[in-house]
Design brief:
The protein has 449 residues and is an alpha/beta fold. 50% of the residues lie in helices and 14% in strands. It has 3 domains: 5-134, Rossmann fold, CATH 3.40.50; 141-311, Rossmann fold (3-Layer(aba) Sandwich), CATH 3.40.50; 315-444, Helicase, Ruva Protein, domain 3, CATH 1.10.8.
Amino acid sequence: MSKFKICIIEDEDSIREVISEDLVDAGFEVVSFSNGSDCIKYLESSLFDICVVDIRLPDIDGLNLIRIIKERIPRVGILTMTAYGSIDTAVEAMRLGAFNYITKPFSSDELILNINKLIEFKNLKSQCEIIEKSNLERYSFESYIGVSDFTEHLRNLMKIASQSNSPVLITGETGTGKELVANIIHFNSPRRNKPFVKLSCAILPRETFESELFGHVKGAFTGAIKDRVGKLEEANGGTLFLDDVDDIPLDLQVKLLRFLQEGEIQKIGSNKTIQVDVRVISATKKNLLTLSEKGLFRDDLYYRLNVLPIHILPIRDRIEDIPPLFQHFVEYFGKGRIKIEQEVFLELQNYEWRGNIREIKNLAERLVILNQTGVINVGSLPTEIIKKNSRKQDNLENQSLKKYLSQIEKELLVKTLEETNYNQTKTAEKLKIPLNTLRSKLKKYGINL
C-alpha cells in the first residue's frame, strides 16, 4: 500500500522541520515549502493527498492558496494551522473546503490525530462516491430495459419526475417494475445522496402500521419500551416509497395527507410536531380512483398522491420489450456463456406473461440453471408456454372474423383505459369516439370501473 503524500506550507523553518520529522516518523511521505509560490509551482509537476497550510504566509494569503490548491486538486484534503488570534480566518478556510484547523502551538500527537481523522474522512468519502457511482449505474434510466415506444416514453417520464419534488403515483400490474421505476427516479434526483426508504404497506399488521410510518415515543403504548423513528423521519431529506399504497388503513390516510400538505409528522404518544423533508413515491396495482369512489380510499389523498402519474403497461402490450429483457436476464444469470436461438424469442412474444417482467426473470434464471448445452432453444422452454401458444393459435384459426375483431376491440379498450389511468373522458378522446359510445362498449364487454 502506497504512503499518503503530505505537503506542508509553513514559513517558520523550525516549525516546518519538526512537523516534517513527526510525519515521516509516523509513516507518511512528506514534502515541505516555506512559501505558497513554491507550492503552486510544485502543483504543476506532482500531486499530493493532504496539504497542511499555515494561514499566514509571507508571499500569498493562505485563503487564496487554499482556493488555488482546491481548483487544481479538488480531492486533496486540507488541514490549516493558525495562531489563536486568526481563528475566524481558519473558519473561513473550512468554508473553502479545508477539513479542520489546529491552533499553534500544537503537539505532535494532536497533529497526527487530525491527519488520521482527515484520512478516515477521505476514505469514507471515497466509499460514498463508489456507492453513488454504483447506484447511478444500477439505476440509470436505461436500466429499465426495453425498445418499445412505450418504454422510451416511460424513460422520459422518469427523467421529468426525477427533477421534481412532487409526489409520484406509479400504477401497473404485479411484476411490471414499479419499484425499479421508483429507484430510478430517486437515484437520478437531487436527493440521490439521501435515504431511499421503502415501506411495504400490504405486509404490515394494522396495529403496527402507524408506528412504522410515523414512529412513537417511549411509553406511548404497551410494549413501547423506547422511542422509535418512523419511516417518514428515517427518509428525511430523501424519498419514501410506499408500495401497495392502497393497503394503508383508512383512518391513517388522513395523517399521511396531513404530512403531504404540511410537511410535518407527530409520533404516537407525543404532542410535538416534527418537520421532515421527504419526497413520496407511491405504487399500486389497483385503481385508486375506483377505490376512492367506493369509499375504500380517501379521494383527497388520491389526488395528492397522483400529482405525477406513471402507468406501466403490462409486458404483453409491448412485446418488443420481451427479447431484450429475456436476453438481459440470461446474460445476467449465465454470465454471458449461454446463447439463445431466435425461435425462442418468437415463442416468448406469443406468451401472455401474466407475471410480467418478474415472470420473464424467473424463467431466464430457471433455464440457465437447467441448461447443460450452452444454448437455449425452443425445446428448452417449459411445456406451459408451448401449450398456451398452441391453444392461442388454434383459437385464432377457429374464430370467426366478427369474434376476432371483438376480441381486439376489447383488448384495445382495456389497454387505453390503463394508459389513461381509467379516466373515461380521456379514453374516449384518445380512441376518438363519443363518451356514450365508450360506456356502451364497456357494458358490452363487461368491463366494470
